[in-house]
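Incident log, support desk, overnight shift.

02:14 A customer reports that sequence design results differ from what the structure should imply. Their input is reproduced verbatim below. On-call engineer (initials T.W.) acknowledged and began investigating.
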């Protein structure tokens, strides 16, 4: 870690100690419970959306390409605009922005439900609805990073609890969506999705955030100030080697590991073992993420990113067991262990960002983090098919497994990453 980084991180620790820790409970409180409900319910709705889009568009004569295009419209808007959302979140009330974003998505998903209920489904309209929803998500997401440390003194515990809730919702969402499609129609799923945003907006509306630490900078008005804030966020992001170092390594992970693993695992398991087996493997992955969240609630490593990187070695089992053609029990076990490792890493990473970065630039830095983390995933997904066609899906998955080990080792090889000391005031594990 450079001298500049050490000074910056020292400032962040000091602001953390004199900020939220002195004013909010360690973890559970009325306000954190409301935020917890908002995140869990919204995640439940988000995991229902792919089922609704696939079932609805296929019923109306569209193909898999149309489903992908509808999903891509949301993802492209989110990834392309989340950096600007970070600037907006640092200039205005994050709670009001998140409530507003939820209300926008309540309207978009209600409109989609009406289209499917009436049977007047036009692809460009669904894509436009998805794009607007993605824009709202880009405004919403940056505020999550700064909200957690303002609501809970135990930031790691808060992230662990939220991760468990989101993982549980991810397990339940597709099943609930499938049930609603069978009992009602795809329009019913969209209506339920809209209702989750209503619940999230109401929960966020009811919570009260403590004031920002004294001395927090207020941005000036106008496009010039907006550009200056954008540049400052980038400067703060690149000034921390541990931060941009993780994102640089994570781009490789998205291209060569996660990007090809998700579609190729689905294709291989369904082809050789059927859709029920894939459901079992996917459920095992989700169950593993719950376990990882539980571990993150209890383990308090002094070097959080080092511990998280060590946990990432566990991801090897997910693509390796499928690529090697092992049986369903082995694949499910590999998926569960991988999910636990990824979940533990996710909590360590989120907590590090939220506690090491000063509060007045946290939303912008988190936005760059999100944009960088997601930017390469579509590339990996797009390359998965051609690579599998040329080399075979099994070989690509085995290569992804090996690359996952390289990624974890690369994180540990950077001194600024492995040497970063926790800054949240929680006692480290002995």
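02:41 Re-run completed on a clean worker. Output:
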């Amino acid at each position: 870690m450079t001298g500049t980084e050490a000074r910056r991180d020292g400032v962040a620790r000091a602001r953390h100690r004199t900020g939220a820790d002195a004013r909010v409970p360690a973890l559970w409180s009325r306000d954190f419970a409301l935020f917890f409900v908002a995140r869990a319910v919204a995640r439940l709705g988000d995991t229902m959306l792919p089922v609704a889009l696939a079932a609805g568009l296929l019923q109306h004569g569209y193909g898999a390409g149309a489903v992908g295009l509808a999903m891509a419209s949301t993802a492209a808007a989110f990834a392309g605009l989340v950096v600007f959302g970070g600037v907006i979140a640092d200039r205005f009330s994050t709670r009001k922005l998140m409530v507003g974003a939820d209300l926008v998505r309540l309207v978009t998903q209600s409109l989609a439900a009406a289209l499917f209920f009436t049977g007047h489904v036009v692809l460009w309209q669904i894509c436009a609805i998805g794009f607007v929803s993605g824009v709202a998500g880009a405004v919403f997401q940056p505020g999550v990073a700064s909200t957690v440390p303002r609501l809970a003194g135990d930031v790691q515990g808060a992230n662990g609890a939220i991760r468990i809730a989101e993982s549980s919702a991810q397990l339940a969402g597709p099943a609930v969506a499938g049930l609603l499609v069978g009992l009602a129609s795809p329009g019913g799923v969209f209506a339920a999705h809209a209702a989750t945003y209503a619940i999230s907006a109401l929960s966020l509306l009811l919570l009260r955030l403590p004031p920002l630490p004294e001395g927090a900078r207020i941005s000036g008005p106008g496009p010039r100030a907006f550009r200056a804030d954008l540049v400052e966020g980038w400067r703060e992001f690149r000034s921390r080697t541990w931060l941009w170092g993780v994102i640089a390594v994570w781009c490789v992970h998205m291209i060569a590991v996660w990007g090809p693993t998700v579609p190729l695992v689905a294709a291989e398991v369904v082809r050789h073992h059927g859709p029920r087996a894939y459901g079992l493997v996917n459920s095992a992955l989700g169950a593993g993420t719950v376990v990882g969240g539980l571990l993150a609630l209890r383990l308090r490593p002094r070097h959080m990113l080092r511990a998280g990187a060590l946990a990432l070695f566990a991801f090897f089992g997910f693509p390796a067991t499928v690529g090697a053609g092992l049986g369903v029990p082995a694949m499910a076990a590999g998926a569960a262990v991988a999910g636990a490792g990824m979940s533990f890493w996710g909590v360590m990473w989120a907590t590090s960002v939220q506690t090491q970065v000063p509060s007045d630039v946290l939303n912008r830095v988190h936005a760059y983090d999100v944009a960088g983390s997601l930017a390469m995933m579509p590339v990996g997904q797009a390359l998965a098919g051609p690579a599998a066609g040329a080399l075979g899906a099994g070989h690509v998955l085995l290569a992804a497994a090996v690359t996952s080990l390289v990624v974890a080792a690369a994180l540990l090889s950077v001194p600024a990453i492995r040497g970063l000391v926790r800054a949240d005031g929680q006692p480290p594990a002995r």
